[in-house]
């Protein structure tokens, strides 16, 4: 901290003003903060110049960049330019020191340059970052003639001559921004400044509007449209201000843990101090933020598309009678006589060609959505034409236009009710409206791509309108406790209102009601349990329904986000789909057929184990639990036999060397191989069965930075435990074999009492080197299900993730004498959802209400 007595009065006043401004902003981050802060800094420079005495040379002190725009956030740099007409006097250096040294003493981030007008013009022609900063130049003090001379020369010599090159440079820069920062209109943790849709997009609109004016080009936007852009920019800038204050540092990424305090500072305060109430307040904030950022991004894209269009080599054919294709997009020929039919025709051509409607065409629709909707609502022809749009190869382009122009919400009030609903979790990337359009776009790509897997399904569908309408309605029940059933009711009523037959409307409603069926069964149930595919098959009835449901479920999951769709979930979906399809095509196995299948599997394992002792192989096959032949292919099972043989040899050696109380306990062998799913490994761990074995293995894997995806546990009759874990790739910079060896040693030490895994995990949690797992805080949930499986109780646990989450849960279950047979673990970006298939110590389900309550309470306590 600077010594107060050495600060000049101007700096002391600046420090006090900043402190007062910060304190007020922490209560509610007002829209005026950026300008107020900028004004406070302006006043400092005015007062400081008076304190030091006006210099005896002609100059202009100019604010540039964000400071020039009057948009300073708490962590923003303060950038100034000391400008001279022709030459820089020697006394300028001391003048700059007098101005800036007190600010450095206050630990402010400064950027400064001292240049002549000629220097600025020369640099701006070569360095477009300099050009952009000068577009925001704002005079603070000095000679007005200097700044006027600069502005005139800057317009004439730089903007008029380099405007198109500058725009091309920004277009290229935006590609880099997309790669580095992502599209913030569709990110769970948006980047408020540089992400697409962030403040930089809005700045580009104003920069290029100024450039176009200097070049004599007609403006793209009306004054009122630019005013709306300023309002959206102001909201995002307020959010950035609140973010800096919440984080107590400069950051432009709105991380999950910073969303609640940021929302609170923005005035979106929860009514109650509960996770649910906090979540709702954040959802309102994020909904408003995403609306602003989507509009900002749309205006930036439009300005490039229409102000600096890229030439069309061959204009595509247009079927609409009142439309034409230009380099700027699809426009209406006669804007005075546009009908609702013309509008849908234009969107159809957009979906075919991939060209968006021009801003002028979209403006016409956006200003009159009700007028067009009145001609379209509740008409069968409207429904058919929208389906045709959704089925086109470039449906996503048209969907974005239908959403932006407000036409779709005007035609379907049911869509309007939930369009901007967003959920505070790390699961859903988009608000409902955009998610719906993304689902339609993805499903349309499946239909048009010609890829083998989707083409086979699509070719067997008699109607393509049914799944595409399912995609449109699948989330319109959001906001209700059972959104799938509510959505089905909405679909049934709405589609009949639009003239669809009751039978067809019921087919769509079926897809809507059950669009989560495959995801829930695939990720939560034991796919080796014959009851699981049987239940799905009994519900869907036909192969065609199964295919429609699968296409919709995959499109929905891909549009939802990375937590819903990744290599692992893809493999689970596919496994379930194939099992249900076989049931529908060939029927269930009879008992003799099932027995024959088990015998065949055993014979195949025998054939692959000829090099091993026949008596050992027969004994091992007899000792294996029958479920293993359903859960694993015969090739994998065959690899277990030599592993177990080596285990027993190692146990025998260990019993010779060690006292009986620990002899053999810590012995374990790990065999690792890349799994079928890219980026994962299958670890087969053999050890003697003993209490707490699964807990120990889970803890050891976590201790060494491995992400556990699933665990299948097989306990043999002879006391052998063969546990099969699916894990993510080892941490960077470590060889896989080295990691497996470390895990094995940790398991050994823990089982013989040399390593306290719980204590080590706690140390990791507390370590400042441990990177915190970002995710919204959520109320923990524990459910015990005794209906979904004939053999197991299914315990589902969902909560905010933490290091050792699985270890802690498994330890509670083990304490209660619960035997874990199967675990499915989902942990992405801060949220854990673990499913355990368990039995009690007698091999049955956990059915006593009192015991279920005790287990549930202890699990919640551990969370």
UniProtKB/TrEMBL annotation:
Domain HD: 432-549
Region named Uridylyltransferase: 1-317
Cited InterPro entries: ACT-like_dom_sf, ACT_dom, HD/PDEase_dom, HD_domain, NT_sf, PII_UdlTrfase/GS_AdlTrfase, Polymerase_NTP_transf_dom, UTase/UR
Stored CDD domains: ACT_ACR-UUR-like_2, ACT_UUR-like_1, NT_GlnE_GlnD_like
Stored Gene3D superfamilies: cca-adding enzyme, domain 2
Keyword Ribonucleoprotein attached: no
Catalytic reactions on record: [protein-PII]-L-tyrosine + UTP = [protein-PII]-uridylyl-L-tyrosine + diphosphate; [protein-PII]-uridylyl-L-tyrosine + H2O = [protein-PII]-L-tyrosine + UMP + H(+)
Coiled coil: none
Means of activity regulation: Uridylyltransferase (UTase) activity is inhibited by glutamine, while glutamine activates uridylyl-removing (UR) activity.
Recorded GO MF terms: [protein-PII] uridylyltransferase activity; phosphoric diester hydrolase activity
Keyword Transit peptide among UniProt keywords: no
A UniProt-annotated Pfam family: HD
ACT domain mapped to chain residues: 682-760, 794-863
Cofactor: Mg(2+)
Domain of life of the organism encoding this protein: Bacteria
GO BP of this protein: regulation of nitrogen utilization
Catalytic activity, EC: 2.7.7.59, 3.1.4.-
Keywords: Hydrolase, Magnesium, Multifunctional enzyme, Nucleotidyltransferase, Repeat, Transferase
Free-text domain note: Has four distinct domains: an N-terminal nucleotidyltransferase (NT) domain responsible for UTase activity, a central HD domain that encodes UR activity, and two C-terminal ACT domains that seem to have a role in glutamine sensing.
Family recorded in the similarity comment: Belongs to the GlnD family.
Free-text function comment from the UniProt entry: Modifies, by uridylylation and deuridylylation, the PII regulatory proteins (GlnB and homologs), in response to the nitrogen status of the cell that GlnD senses through the glutamine level. Under low glutamine levels, catalyzes the conversion of the PII proteins and UTP to PII-UMP and PPi, while under higher glutamine levels, GlnD hydrolyzes PII-UMP to PII and UMP (deuridylylation). Thus, controls uridylylation state and activity of the PII proteins, and plays an important role in the regulation of nitrogen metabolism.
Designated name of the protein: Bifunctional uridylyltransferase/uridylyl-removing enzyme
Gene: glnD
């Amino acid at each position: 901290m600077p010594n107060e007595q050495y600060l000049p009065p101007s700096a002391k006043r600046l420090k006090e003003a900043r402190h007062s401004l910060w304190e007020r902003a922490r209560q509610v981050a007002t829209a005026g903060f950026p300008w107020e802060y900028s004004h406070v800094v302006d006043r400092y420079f005015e007062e400081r110049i008076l304190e030091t005495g006006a210099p005896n040379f002609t100059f202009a002190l100019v604010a540039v960049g964000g400071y020039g725009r009057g948009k300073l956030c708490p962590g923003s740099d303060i950038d100034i330019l000391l400008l001279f007409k022709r030459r820089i006097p020697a006394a300028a250096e001391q003048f700059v020191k007098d101005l800036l040294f007190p600010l450095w003493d206050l630990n402010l981030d400064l950027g400064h340059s001292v240049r002549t007008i000629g220097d600025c013009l020369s640099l701006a022609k070569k360095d477009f970052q300099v050009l952009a900063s000068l577009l925001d130049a704002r005079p603070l003090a000095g000679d007005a003639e200097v700044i006027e001379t600069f502005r005139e020369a800057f317009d004439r010599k730089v903007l008029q001559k380099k405007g198109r090159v500058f725009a091309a440079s920004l277009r290229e820069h935006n590609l880099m921004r997309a790669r580095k920062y992502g599209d913030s209109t569709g990110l769970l943790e948006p980047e408020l400044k540089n992400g697409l849709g962030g403040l930089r997009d809005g700045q580009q609109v104003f920069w290029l509007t100024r450039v176009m004016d200097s070049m004599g080009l007609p403006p793209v936007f009306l004054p009122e449209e630019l005013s709306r852009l300023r309002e959206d920019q102001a909201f995002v800038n307020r959010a950035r201000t609140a973010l800096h204050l919440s984080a107590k540092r400069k950051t432009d990424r709105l991380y999950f843990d910073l969303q609640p305090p940021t929302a609170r500072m923005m005035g979106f305060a929860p009514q109650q101090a509960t996770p649910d109430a906090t979540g709702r307040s954040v959802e309102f904030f994020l909904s408003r933020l995403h609306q602003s950022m989507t509009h900002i991004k749309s205006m930036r894209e439009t300005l490039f598309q229409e102000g600096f269009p890229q030439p069309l080599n061959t204009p595509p054919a247009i079927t609409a009678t009142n439309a034409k294709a230009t380099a700027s997009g699809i426009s209406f020929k006669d804007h005075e006589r546009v009908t609702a039919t013309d509008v849908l025709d234009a969107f159809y051509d957009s979906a075919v060609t991939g060209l968006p409607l021009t801003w002028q065409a979209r403006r016409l629709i956006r200003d009159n959505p009700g007028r067009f909707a009145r001609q379209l609502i509740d008409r069968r022809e409207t429904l058919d034409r929208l389906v045709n749009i959704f089925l086109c190869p470039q449906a996503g382009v048209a969907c974005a236009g239908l959403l932006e122009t407000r036409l779709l919400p005007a035609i379907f009030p049911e869509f309007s009710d939930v369009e901007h609903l967003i959920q505070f979790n790390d699961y859903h990337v988009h608000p409902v409206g955009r998610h719906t359009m993304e689902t339609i776009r993805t499903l349309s790509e499946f239909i048009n791509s010609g890829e083998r897997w989707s083409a086979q399904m699509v070719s067997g569908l008699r109607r393509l309108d049914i799944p595409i309408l399912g995609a449109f309605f699948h989330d319109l029940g959001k906001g209700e406790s059972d959104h799938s059933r509510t959505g089905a009711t909405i679909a049934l009523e709405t589609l009949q209102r639009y003239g669809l037959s009751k039978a067809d409307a019921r087919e769509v409603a079926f897809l809507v009601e059950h669009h989560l069926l495959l995801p829930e069964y695939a990720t939560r149930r034991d796919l080796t349990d014959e009851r699981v595919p049987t239940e799905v098959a009994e519900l869907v009835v036909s192969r065609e329904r199964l295919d429609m449901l699968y296409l919709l479920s995959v499109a929905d999951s891909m549009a939802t986000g990375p937590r819903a769709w990744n290599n692992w979930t893809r493999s689970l979906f596919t496994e379930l789909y194939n099992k249900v399809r076989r049931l529908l095509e060939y029927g269930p196995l009879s008992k003799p057929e099932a027995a024959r299948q088990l015998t065949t599997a055993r014979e195949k394992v025998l054939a692959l184990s000829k090099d091993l002792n026949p008596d050992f192989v027969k004994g091992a096959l007899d000792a294996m639990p029958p479920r293993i032949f359903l859960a694993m292919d015969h090739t994998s099972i065959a690899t277990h036999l030599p592993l177990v043989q080596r285990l027993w040899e190692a146990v025998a050696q260990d019993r010779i060397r060690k006292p009986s109380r620990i002899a053999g306990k810590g012995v374990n062998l790990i065999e690792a191989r890349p799994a079928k799913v890219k980026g994962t490994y299958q670890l087969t761990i053999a050890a003697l069965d003993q209490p707490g074995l699964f807990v120990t293995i889970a803890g050891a894997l976590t201790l060494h930075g491995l992400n556990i995806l699933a665990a299948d546990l097989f306990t043999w009759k002879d006391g052998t435990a063969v546990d099969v874990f699916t894990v993510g790739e080892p941490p960077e910079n470590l060889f896989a074999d080295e990691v497996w060896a470390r895990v094995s040693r940790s398991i050994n030490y823990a089982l013989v009492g040399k390593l306290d895994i719980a204590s080590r995990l706690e140390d990791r949690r507390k370590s400042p080197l441990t990177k915190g797992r970002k995710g919204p805080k959520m109320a923990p949930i524990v459910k015990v299900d005794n209906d979904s499986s004939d053999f197991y109780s299914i315990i589902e646990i969902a909560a905010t993730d933490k290091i050792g989450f699985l270890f802690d849960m498994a330890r509670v279950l083990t304490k209660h004498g619960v035997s874990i047979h199967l675990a499915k673990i989902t942990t992405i970006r801060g949220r854990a959802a673990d499913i355990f298939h368990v039995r009690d110590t007698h091999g049955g389900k956990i059915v006593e209400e009192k015991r279920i309550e005790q287990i549930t309470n202890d699990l919640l306590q551990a969370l």
